[in-house]
Amino acid sequence: MRFKRLDLNLLVALDHLLSLRSVSAAAERMNLTQSAMSNALQRLRDYFDDDLLAKVGRRLELTPRAEALKGPVRDVLVRVEWTIAATSQFDPSTSDRKFNLLVSDYTLATLIPRVLARCRNVSRTVQFNFLHQVEAPERLLDRGDVDLLIIPYDFCSKRHPAEVIFEERYCAIVWRNGNLAQGKLSRREFAEASHIVMQPPGGAQSLESVYFKQLGVERRIDVTTYSFNTIPLLVVGTDRIATLQERLARQAERMLPIKVIELPVRLPRMRQAMQWHKYRAQDAGLTWLRELIRDVAQTPA
C-alpha cells in the first residue's frame, strides 16, 4: 500500500532503523536479510531525500530529519497496531494475554503479590511480565513496549493518562540493636548519620531524595544500592539509616531485626500511580487490569 508515493510497509523498517540505529539489528528484528534492509534504507533515503542514518566514526547517527521523524513514525505505528488489536470484550477466565508492566522492586514486593493473588480468583491463564525500572519509562510506553507503568505520580508523563492508586508515607529504618534505635533523632543527627539510598538507573534521583532536596535537607550518603528491597538487609548490623516507603519498611520489620522510626522532617506522601498509553483507553483487557489493580491498592492489606 502506498501513500503519497511512499510504500507504507517501509514505515516499519524506518521505525526499527531509527530506534536501533543499525541496519543489521533492524534486519534481525524484522527477520530480513541485511541486504533487504539496506535496500529498504536506500528507498527511504530516496523518498525523504535525506541520509536518515549517517556514519559518524564507527557508529550510525540520526540526521536532524530522522530525529524529527522518529516520534511521529512510532506514534502512527502504535496507533494503527492498537486500533487493530483492541477488542471491546475481554474475558480473564479464558484469555492467555500477557501483560507487560514496568514496576519498581518496591511495588513488586508490596502491591504485586496481592494483585496476583486476586487475579488467581478470576483467571488461571492471564500472564504477567514485570520489567525493572529504567530511566525515562515513558519512552517504553510511547513505543508500546509496556502496557502499564506503576510509578510515582511525580514521574508520570504529561502525554498519557495517569491515575493515583494509593498514597504512601515515608519513614526511617535502623538496626534494632544499633545506636540510632535508642531514641528520637533530631534533624541534625539525621543529616549527620550514615545513610543508605536507592540510586535509580541513569543517575536519576529516587523520589524521597527529590523531596529532601526540596526541603533543603542534606544527608551523608555512604551507601547506594539499585534496589529498595536490599536496603533493610544493608541496615542490619550497622549504625546506618535509610528512608523507606512505610509499606516496605513494615514488611521488612516483621522479618528482620530492624526498627521503624519517625523522620525528623515531614516529607510529602508518595502518590503511587498507574499510567497507560492514551491510545489504549478503550482496551478492554487493560481496563480490566487497571480495575483489578485499583481495587487491590485501595483494599487494606
Molecular structure report:
With 301 residues, the chain is of the alpha/beta class. It folds into three domains: 2-85, Winged helix-like DNA-binding domain superfamily/Winged helix DNA-binding domain (Arc Repressor Mutant, subunit A), CATH 1.10.10.10; 98-167 and 271-297, Periplasmic binding protein-like II (D-Maltodextrin-Binding Protein, domain 2); 170-268, D-Maltodextrin-Binding Protein, domain 2, CATH 3.40.190.10. The chain contains twelve helices and 14 strands. It has a five-stranded mixed sheet. The protein has a five-stranded mixed sheet with strand order 11-10-12-9-13. Helix 2 crosses helix 3 (34-48). It is globular, with a radius of gyration of 24 Å. The relative contact order is 0.14. The model has no long low-confidence stretch (mean pLDDT 89).
